[in-house]
Design a protein that fits this description.
The chain contains 13 helices and 13 strands. It has helices at residues 3-26, 32-39, 43-55, 87-95, 97-103, 109-122, 125-132, 152-164, 235-239, 259-266, 293-301, 313-331, 352-356; strands at 60-65, 68-73, 166-174, 179-193, 196-203, 208-213, 217-226, 251-257, 275-280, 283-290, 307-311, 333-338, 341-346. It has a 5-stranded antiparallel β-sheet with strand order 6-5-4-3-7, with helices on one face. Strands 9-10-8-11 form a 4-stranded antiparallel β-sheet. Strands 1-2 form a two-stranded antiparallel ribbon. The chain is of the alpha+beta class. It is extended.
Amino acid sequence: MSRWGGVMGRNAQLIRQWAILKQIEHNRWTTISDLADHHVVSTKTIRRDLAALMEAGFPLYDERYDGKVYWRLNEEHKGLPLASFSLSETAALYFSKKVLINLAAPPFSNDIESAFKKIESALPEKNIEFLNNFDSMITVRADAPKDFDQHKGTIRTLMEATSEGNRLRMYYYSVHSQKKKSYTVHPYRLLYFRSGLYLFAYVEEYQQIRTFAVERIERIEKLADHFEKPADFTVENYLGEAFGVIKEEASDVEVIFGADVAEYVRSRVWHASQQVREIGGGRINLKMRAGGEYELASWILSFGPSATVVAPERLRRRVESDLARAMENYRMEKTVVTPGKAKKVEIKKAAASVSRR
């Protein structure tokens, strides 16, 4: 058997053993035959699995009743300071630490890491060894997370004001206007989305709700007076048909994706309203009703030449304009530094048809 085949076999064994532990914990009338039938393995394999679980420190035992032998988990096992959690729940929390620590929204990242240290101390050492074997199956990598280390104080103030209903004076850098602005806001809710943290707040100057990227808040001041948050406000209702976190009037969006990315696009849920159909040659047509032109354009541009906007016309022209501007970057003369001297190299112009589309 190859090394990879051995790893796969070990992973399947660990998954089965974890499932066996949960079955026994939730059903006090579980026999070895029941487990063998459920997992489609021999009773000999189940006995080995039970032995491995006991060796890992899980307090399993067998009990005879009415002529049958049932396997059970010791419910009086109180080696856990987290008494409200079952043993398997505590172990599952420990196993999920990689996901939570990597994806946790600030300012909770450090607190979550500390919490997992307590969970680890609550589990027997053999339990930890058993659970660490799962590391060979799942790796977590955050998707370009924003660095919030410099903004912990801002986040703390936002959370306090949101919880207590305090008005805020906020100094914010607007990317859209390329200016610093000051606002008086009523903080309604924070949203952690695609590794970014966003504030939804009612802006007194505009008399409407706006979305703010937390890392662009340059200074914040919690005011003494309070506001009343609408009882029916939710982020989901506010954003409605938005593609991301920017609320704009929704349009009927239609994009054609080439065969090289069709399977990737088809396999993901980009928006709740999306509809995908085959159009021949391996291509697909994706339709959805969504708002947020900037976010839609950025998403479409990420597919390069493999995506073509059909509708709406405004979005199509925006993507076309962005592509033309990008092409200009490659038409310009570029200085190439070589050892001893610098020389100018003129990049060949792209086909004129691209700019005339």
